[in-house]
Structures are given as C-alpha cells and as structure tokens.
Design a protein that fits this description.
Beta-Lactamase, 243 residues, alpha+beta, single chain, 2 domains, 5 strands, Arc Repressor Mutant, subunit A
Amino acid sequence: MPDPADVEPPRDPRAAFAELSKIMLGEQPLSATLERVAELAKQTIPGAADVSVTLLQDGEVASAAFTGPLSAQLDERQYESGFGPCMDAATSGTTITIDDTAHSPTYPDFARAAARKGVLHTMSIGLPVQRQTIGALNVYGTDDTPFDEAKQELATAFASYAAVAVANAGVYASTATLAANLQRALDSRAVIDQAKGILMARHRGMSADAAFDLLSKESQLNNRKLRDIAQDLVDEVQRGGRD
C-alpha cells in the first residue's frame, strides 16, 4: 500500500488538461497514450494512490492501463465477478464512488477485497465521447479522506479531457485497435485463470478466490504484473510436462 507521506502534491489541473488536449491521432502508440492518461490522473487528482483506465467495446470491459499492481488486481477482481463500480461506470457513463470500503451495501464483495489491500475509498468516472461511453477512469484512495465533491468535480473534468485524448489516439475511431487491446486483456485473463487452476490442483481445497489472492500477493512482493506471474506458473507446468 502506498505511504501517504510519499504521495507527491497534486499538479496543476490546467497543465494536465493542456497536455491531454494536445494528444493527437497517431502521435504515439495507443498504449503509451493510455498509460500517460492514467499517470496524469494520479498526479492531478488529490488522494489518488493508484489509477487505471478501463475500455469498453461491445459490452466487454478490460483494463488498458494502470499505474500500479493495486489497481490492476482490483480491476481484475471486478472482471472476474462481472460486477463492480468500474464496470458500472464504464457502461453507464456515470460517476460511482465508494466512500468507505468497510461499509458498501452496493458492492460488498469488491469493497471487502479493496479494504484488505488498504484501499479505503474509490471513484470510477465514465469516459464520454459523442453521447457514448468508451470506458472509465478508476481512482483508488488509501488515505483517511474520501473523495469529496470538489475532487469528484475535478475528476469529472479530467475524464472529459481524457476521453477526447483517448478518442484522438484512435481508440474510439479504430475498432480494430480497440479489439486488439481487448483481446490482449482477455488473453491475460485466460492465463490468470490457468494459473489459478494450477494452484487449486496443487493445494486441495483451495478456492478460486484464494488462488487469485496468492497470485496477487506474489505480484506485489515481486513488483511484477499479475499476468506475468501467472504466465511464469503456466510455463513452469508446461515445461514439466514436456520433460
């Protein structure tokens, strides 16, 4: 969990908005644009400990960029269950907040998972383009202060600029590009499911949630992406089978 003392002061929102407005189609790879959007959000929104960008296409959602393993793991938890604030924000285009993950009647399972990882409050904001929504910006907080109205307004303003930047980078206009990104995300999920199955087979009685938590802990301890940890486990088993 990030130490609040290590969090840098927020940058001037006007500078972030100016940078987002200058992002042009084809100027840089799509992945780099999405990662920059996530990083700018983390730097600009007070109290943001970790941020992810969720993309939406034909009803499918996937994390396209994130600033750390915490947001990746919590997003993945929602995709596995098929239910959560980032998914609802992406599909509805609204802003959804959890002020206290210790008490969330709407998303109790997700909130408990977030609380176990030190996330005390969350905020997911839809990314609207031309009366449609292309995804969501997900902000995770670890300090004692929930995202108040002023922070929500700032995040909403940021999301409006970010949505245009994402569209300019070709996500909305290029179905093929978005489909490729979603396919990579779905492939990652398949690898994670394989790794969970391996752990459940090795440890009799282990649940799917416990297997996922074990992978998550390994990801945090080694500061590596969850998908890479899962792939290593799958590769290890495949090599053993060949040998």
